[in-house]
Amino acid sequence: MTHYVTLLTRVDCHACERAVVDVSRICGELNVRWSVSDVDSDRSLRAEYGDRVPVILVDGEEHGYWEVEEERLRAALTG
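and the corresponding structure tokens:
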């Protein structure tokens, strides 16, 4: 199965900046496509996820928030 990761972030969020580095590295190593979306650019995203950024979505489903749990993310992307 081919997975897709979306990372929801916001401007001036240091945890988000760390998450971008981690997700970029992990997805790069596993050859998984991914993207970053600014949670504040969409009212519904901000309402749903705005207090928990960064948020990681795997195949459109919430996988985690606040930090990247590397082993857990790798397992989701390889299983």
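(Above: one complete record from the training split.) Residues 55 and 62 are 7 Å apart (CA to CA).
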